[in-house]
Amino acid sequence: MEKHTAGPWTADLSTRKASYAVKQGEIHVALVNGGAGGDEGHANARRIVACVNAFSDGVPTDVIENREAWPINVLAMAASVEKFRRENADLLEALELAEATIQRLAPDGSRATQGTLDVIRAAIKKATQEGYYLTRAQGARRGE
Fold first, then answer.
1. pLDDT, mean over the chain
2. pLDDT of residue 18
3. Does 61 map to a domain?
4. What would the pLDDT profile of 18-76 be if each residue is shown by its tens digit?
5. Residue 87 scores a pLDDT above 60
6. Are residues 130 and 88 in the same domain?
7. Do 104 and 136 belong to one domain?
8. Among 13, 18, 20, 23, which one is least packed by beta carbons within 10 Å?
9. Per-residue confidence at 111, pLDDT binned at 50, 70, 90?
């Protein structure tokens, strides 16, 4: 099975150039020629990065390549993302409840308690920083 370089991909598009390096971290994934005046290459590099980053690494390339099935695939992916966000909201709520309960029941701050709280807080931070959650208030506004 083919495996592409995981995202996110980037390109330095701050100035017009003869060519643009498309990268993932320090890994050079592609070199896009600048074309006449660099405008076409700039646009192509920008589009490549945007398209790669728009699809999660969990979407198989053959699904992306099958343009006839896109409407069905896009609807299925959108439904999956919404389901994931709702489930993540439930998990986030459970983590926040666990954090509050541990703080209330074990205020002594033992190393074991602190270690557990550190893990819980890291998970909460990741969920809220990356925007993966759909809060109860957002769900209520949308009728969910």
1. 76
2. 78
3. no
4. 788 888 888 888 888 876 656 788 888 888 888 888 776 667 777 777 777 666 667 77
5. yes
6. yes
7. yes
8. 18
9. confident
Could you tell me which residues come within 8 angstroms of residue 63 by beta carbon, excluding any fewer than 6 positions away? Answer: 69, 73
As for how many domains the chain has, the answer is 2
Q: Which amino acid is at 47?
A: R
Question: Per the domain annotation, does 129 fall within a domain?
Answer: yes
Let me know if 22 is exposed, middle or buried by CB neighbors in 10 A (0-12, 13-18, 19+).
buried
* Contacting residues for 35 by C-beta, under 8 A, at least 6 apart: 41, 44
140 pLDDT band, cuts 50/70/90, is very low
Q: Do residues 38 and 98 both lie within one domain?
A: no
By CB atoms closer than 10 A (0-12, 13-18, 19+), residue 89 is buried
Structural domain includes residue 62: no
Beta strand spans in 26-111 (E): 27-33
Domain-located, residue 15: yes
Contact 73, 63 (CB under 8 A): yes
Beta bridge pairs of residue 23: 10, 28
- Domain ranges, residue 15: 10-54
Helix, strand counts (H, E) of the chain:
5, 3
137 and 75 together in one domain: yes
The predicted model scores a pTM of 0.45
